[in-house]
Every structure is written in structure tokens, then in C-alpha cells.
Amino acid sequence: MRIVLMGAPGSGKGTQAQRLVTELGIPQISTGDILRQHRKDGTELGKRADAIMAAGKLVDDATMLDIIRDRVAQPDAQRGFILDGFPRTQAQAEGLATLLLELGTPIDAVVLFEVGAAELVRRISGRRTCSLCNKVFNIYSAPPSSPASDCVAGSSEHQLFQRKDDQEDTVKERLRVYEANTRPVLSYYSDSGLLRTVSAEGSPDEITKRLRAALAASGAGASTNKARPARRAAARKRAATRKPAAARARARKSVRRKSASKTARKTAKPAKAKRRVPRKPAKRVAKRKSRAPRRKSKR
Ligand SMILES: [Zn+2]
To answer: Which of 127, 128, 196, 210 is catalytic?
Structure first.
């Protein structure tokens, strides 16, 4: 299954992505991490990115898409992948769709983790870091114990401070930028019928449940969803017209079995087998064809 996860900073998207990795056995693809690795390894892509960044520019969409193309070709991504943090713009979303269409592996679902703005501000602005042990707490949802037994030796209290990135005004600005950038991407995926929205307020377990339901509902993607009822109807029609014929064949066989039982068993068995062989495989193939799309969708 190929999934794109979207959500504001503080939406808990990263935690859910990690759970999906474990549950589905597919990798999480973070373009930021891959880009860092390419630069560290000094690959062609890494050098290109270095040159772009040295010029004070953002890595362009074409380079980002090359990174994705390279990554989804890896063996561990053949059963699917989770994209996190990409695409960020509509142009990237369109480029990604074109690339995956070329590869014959389109996106199955796009899931948006939705959290109210007030809750997001509370979650992020509640973050505190200990200057002694570097542990991260949340004064609302995960406050440190007092006295602290898990800080550095000799300190009975964590020394908490708030990172500039987590201060309320900065958070509000980050969220504003996120909203402005991602709105076109969300409407792009909404228009293509891939977007599923999950409420990301509540416990992580509750959110995982909602995420699973959203993925199940999206099946193997919108196009398959639309095709499915039609395919089912066709299969039903075929089955309906097949039944009388099958019944007739069964009747014929029972007649044959009766007459065969009168003759010696040894001669009857190979005769039966010869007649059955060409018919059964043909039936199985027909059944498989109607089942195939449903099986795929469960991945
Ligand atoms: Zn500490």
C-alpha cells in the first residue's frame, strides 16, 4: 500500500507513521532524511543538492522527485511505502502522481491528521526541554516528575526551558505557513478522491484505530473503489448465468459416476479425470479474475 501522510507540526503524524511501518512492514520515506543521507554519502544527487543549497536556494522539485524515484525502486519499498513530509506543494503532488503513474504504482491513500489550531498551539507551546539531560516534556500532557529521578546524576530537578521554535508566537506562525502551503495540496488530493481525513485528537491508540479504518475505506485507491461495484455486478451476472450450466454438468457427472460404478473402478477413474481436467482450471481462472482486485485492495 502506498500512502501519503499529511498533518501540521504537532499533529502526531510521526508517531502514527512509525506504527504503520511496524504494522504494514513497509518503509517510511522522509525526503529530508534521504537528502541528508545522499549529501553525507556524496552521491550525484547529494552533490546536486549541496550545490543548490550552497547557492542559498531550496532543493527544486525535479531533484526531490529524483530522490523519490531512486528510493521507491529499492527492494524494501516494493510492497508499498509511507510518504511523510512530501509532497509539500501542488507542483510536487502533480510531479509525484506522474512519476508513480510511470512506474505503475500510484498512491492508494492520502491521510490528513486533523487537529484544531488551539489544540496544536497547546501541544507545541507546552513542550519543555531539560537543559541538563535534554529530555523533552510537555507541561500539559507529559509533565516531568518532581523530584526527578531520571535527570543527570546529582540533579533532583529537571531544568526546563522552552525552545524558540516552540514558543506560542513562533508556533502560530509555523502553523500559518503550513496551512498556506498545504491547502492547495489537500484540495488537489481531495479532487482526485484520494484524501481521507482522520481526527488526530485523543489517545494515540484511538487515532491508530481511525487511521486503520480510513485506510481500509480507501482500499486500493479511489479508481479501484469506483470500478469495484461494477466488477462485482459483472461477476454476479456471470455467476448467475453460470449456475444452470454448472448444475447441468453436475447432473451429467452423477449420471456418469453411476454408470462408472457399474464397470470396474480402475477403468472409471482415469476416464473421469480426463474429462474433468480441462473444465476445472477454466472455472478457477474465471473466479480468480473476479477476486483479484479485492485481494490487492487489502494490502
Ligand atoms: Zn533533566
So the answer is: 127
Domain residues for the domain of 175 are 2-120+169-218
Q: Which tens digits make up the pLDDT trace of 187-202?
A: 999 999 999 999 999 9
Overall domain count for the chain: 3
For the question of residue 88 being annotated catalytic, the response is yes
What is each CA distance from 92 to 20, 45, 197, 266, in whole angstroms? 23, 17, 20, 69
Choose among 109, 102, 104, 83: nearest CA to 190.
109
Same domain, 187 and 96: yes
- Residue 127 annotated to the active site: yes
In the reported structure, the alpha carbon of residue 160 is separated from the centroid of ligand 1 by a whole-number distance in angstroms of 7
CATH code of the domain covering residue 111: 3.40.50.300
42 C-alpha to ligand 1 centroid (Å): 37
Q: Are residues 34 and 106 in the same domain?
A: yes
> Do 102 and 234 lie in a common domain?
no
Please, what is the end-to-end C-alpha distance for the chain in angstroms? Answer: 5
pLDDT digits (tens, 9 = 90+) for 125-134: 999 999 999 9
Strands 109-114 and 127-130: unpaired
CA 138 – ligand 1 centroid, Å: 13
